Each structure stands twice: as structure tokens, then as C-alpha cells.
Amino acid sequence: MAAMRVDGTPTRTIWPLANADAVEIIDQTALPHAYRVLRLARLEEVAHAICSMQVRGAPLIGVTATYGLALAMVRGDDDAALLAAVDTLAATRPTAVNLRWALARMQRCLLPLAPSVRAEVAWQEAARIADEDVEQCRQIGRHGLQLLRSASGARDRLQIMTHCNAGWLATVDYGTALAPVYAAFDAGIDVHVWVSETRPRNQGLLTAWELAQHGVPHTVIADNAAGLLLARGDIDAVIVGADRIAANGDVANKIGTYLKALAARANGLPFYVALPSPTIDWRVQDGLREIPIEERGAEEVTHVQGRDPEGRVVQVRITPDATGARNPAFDVTPADLVTGLITERGIAPASAAGLAAMFPDRVGG
Ligand code: MRU
Fold first, then answer.
1. Cα–Cα distance measured from residue 185 to residue 148, given in angstroms and rounded to the nearest whole number
2. pLDDT higher than 70, residue 1
3. C-alpha to C-alpha distance for 196 and 328, rounded to whole angstroms
4. Could you tell me if the CB of 60 is within 6 A of ligand 1?
5. Is the pLDDT of residue 153 over 90?
6. What is the mean pLDDT of the chain?
7. Helix-strand-coil percent breakdown of the chain, rounded to 5?
8. Is 243 annotated as catalytic?
9. What atom of ligand 1 comes closest to residue 275's alpha carbon?
10. Share of the chain above pLDDT 70, in %
């Protein structure tokens, strides 16, 4: 499977600069209207990039945080500086467990070391975690491709529905839910993706942008159109990503995922969740009760962003001035609605036994 490209150039979503004093990211708040690269040189800039969703998507949030720690170590490498940086980054977003997983791994790696070597080792470990993410996503693509091969053939064109953005932009490369789609497309399978816009932040438009960059046929739909398409038999399979999977297979993912899972089940259609293993939280046994759900600002619901006829990106209010809004950013899909978990090791049943059998070395960890 080919690596992802921007205007034909292979591009990751985050990369360190050669002199190791900054990282660069793709500013996802500017997409799909503008492609803009941002340079982050300080811990505070990294924390802001995660909070404001200049970078987003569970695996990419985790990797970005590791580079944030490396930048922090360049400016102060004692224990207090390390632990304060971990706390600052851990406080940015609560639901995606990849953030906590990555910070815990960095802390385990750096704390026993002499402060003088911490910055150098932090850059190396961050790069290792980024490379591992790429490989995990590549493997998810490989395993998911087998599923899609068996699902294709019933009609001329394989019809996949996804939600939010669990593509290349949500990871370092390839994506999770979209990795099988890219693998299928590259293998010559005629695949078309139904992209739900994913209000309130419209991450579906990021999905549309990256599918267009790769040449994958796709169509954007309003979130509310998903049920009709599923009921009409227009879809072969739903594939989404995840921000945190409980040890029992419950799936926390972007708000609206649960409704798609219900509609898929009601219509007898497969509903797959693709994830790298750092997305599994082995300490959580019950997703709905235990996974913290991020509440974001009401203005993400009361306003929408778009491009005006002059090409300027503007925000407009869509609700009455006096009307309040709530903005839960994720929901939890119970494991029994999930047909299978596409991981870097293969397809696991969404259950405690299924996950434990796929990851016997991690269970309980
Ligand atoms: O709020 P976001 O945009 O960070 O949420 C992203 C999602 O919910 C994705 O579906 C999930 O992180 C999977 S990413 C591979």
C-alpha cells in the first residue's frame, strides 16, 4: 500500500525538523479549504495544537504529545520539568487513550535516565512511536483488505460508509478505518466511500479531502442520511475508528458512531471498528460507565465554518442568539453491536475473550 500523499508528495501528518528544535504539523483547522503547515517549537504550542484540534485523531494526538515532551526536555530536563510536561499534555483532551498511553511510555522511558540525555532519548522514542503507528496502520490496512475482498463482488462497486475522520489525518500515515479502503483501492477493487459530515466539527470533510488526494471515489452525506442508506441496502459495510476501546470491546468514538452501529445492526449489515492496540484501555471494563466523554465548547454547535464566495474562510452563527447548546464529542457503542475489531494483529471479536486472545501479552496491562 502506497504511503499517503499531498498533491502527489508522500507526506506524514507530523515530522520533526532535522536540527531537533521543532516539529511541523498539518493544520487540520484550515482543511479542507487550505493546506497549511505549522511549526511547533514549545510545549505550550503543542498543548494548544491538541486542544484546538490543529492535530486530532486518537493516534496522532498520542504521537504529537510525545514530540511535545521531547520539546519540553530541550528546555528543561529535570524530573520536575518532565512530570509537569506530562501533566500539561495529559490535560489537553480526555477521551482518546492513546494520549495517556504515549505519555506513560515516554515517562517510563525517560524518568530513570540522567537528565542530560533525556532530550536526545525523547526525540528517538517519539520517532519510534511514530514509526510504530505507521506500521500498525499499514497492518490494519492489510487485515482489513481481506475483509473487503470477501465483501466485494456482490455488486459492481464496494460501498463503504465511515464516520468522522479515521484516515491518514488522524494518524501518522495510512489511517485506521480508511487504511483498508486505501489498500482495497490500491489493489484495484472498485470502492466508493459514503462520508458523513460529522457535525459539529465536520471531520467528514477532512475524510473527503484525503480520499480526494488519493483519488478514492466518495460522496459526502449529511449525518442524518446514514440511516436511509443503510436501510435501503446501499452499503456493504460500515468501518469507523476508535478513541478508546474498553477491555470488553465497547467502543468510544466520535459522537454519532452509536447511531450508525444501531442502524447497521437493524439492517443486518457489518459494523467494523479499526484500531491500533494503543487505543485499547485494558483497565476499563465497561465503556459507557468508565470512559470519560469530552464536552467541547457550545460554539462548535452554534457556529459553522465555511468558505464564502470570495474564498475567505468565515464562521457564521446558525442558532438563535438566546439558545444554548451542549457538545458531547464522543459516544460509546456497546461491544455487541460491533461485528469485529480490525487490529494490527488481525480481526478480533469485540469481546473480553476476543481481545484477550488477540493480545495475550497485553491483557490486564
Ligand atoms: O475529536 P477528534 O476529531 O479527535 O475525534 C477523532 C475520532 O473520533 C476518530 O474517529 C478516532 O480518533 C479514530 S482516529 C484513527
1. 10
2. no
3. 18
4. no
5. no
6. 96
7. 40, 20, 40
8. yes
9. 15
10. 99
Which residues, including other chains, have CB under 8 Å from residue 294's CB and lie 6 or more apart? 93, 94, 95, 328, 329, 330
Q: Do 26 and 64 meet the contact criterion of CB atoms below 8 Å apart?
A: no
Cβ atoms of 341 and 350 within 8 Å: the answer is: yes
pLDDT tens, residue by residue, 323-357: 999 999 999 999 999 999 999 999 999 999 999 99
Contact 281, 291 (CB under 8 A): yes
26, 110, 98: which is closest to 65 by C-alpha? 98
Neighbours of 62 (CB within 10 A): 29
Which cell goes with 143?
487485515
Contacts of 361 (CB under 8 A, 6+ apart): none
CA of 114 to the centre of ligand 1 (A): 36
Cα–ligand 1 centroid distance for 172 (angstroms): 13
Ligand 1 touching residue 167 (CB < 6 A): no
Q: Would you state the pLDDT for residue 3?
A: 84
Length of the chain: 365
Query: Which position has the grid cell 540525555?
Result: 117
Reading the block at residue 356, the C-alpha cell is 484477550
pLDDT of 47-58, one tens digit each?
A: 999 999 999 999
Quick one: DSSP state of residue 295?
B
pLDDT at 241 over 80: yes
**Distance in angstroms (rounded) separating the CA atoms of residues 64 and 102:** 9
Query: Which letter does DSSP use for residue 269 in this model?
Result: -
Of 173, 243, 250, 331, which residue is the catalytic one?
A: 243
Q: For residue 258, how far is its CA from the centre of ligand 1 (angstroms)?
A: 14
